[in-house]
Amino acid sequence: TAVNSLIPASLQGGTGLVNTPRAQIADFDTTKRSTFDANITKVFNAAGSHNLKGGYGFQHVVNDINTYYPGGYVQINWGGSFVFGGVNRGTGTYGYYEVNDRRITNKAGSNIKSLYVQDQWAAGQHLTLSLGLRTEHEVVPTFRPDILKNAFDFGWGDKLAPRLGAAYDVWGDGKAKVFASWGRYYDWTKYELPRGSFGAETWCIYYRALDTLDLGSLNMTNKPGTSLWPSNPAGCRDRRVPAFAEEIDPDAKPMSQDSTNAGFEYQLDKGSVLSVYYVHNNLRTTIEDIGFLDATGNEGYLIGNPGVGLTKRSEEHTSELQSRG
Question: What radius of gyration, in Å, describes the C-alpha atoms of the chain?
Answer without folding.
Answer: 29
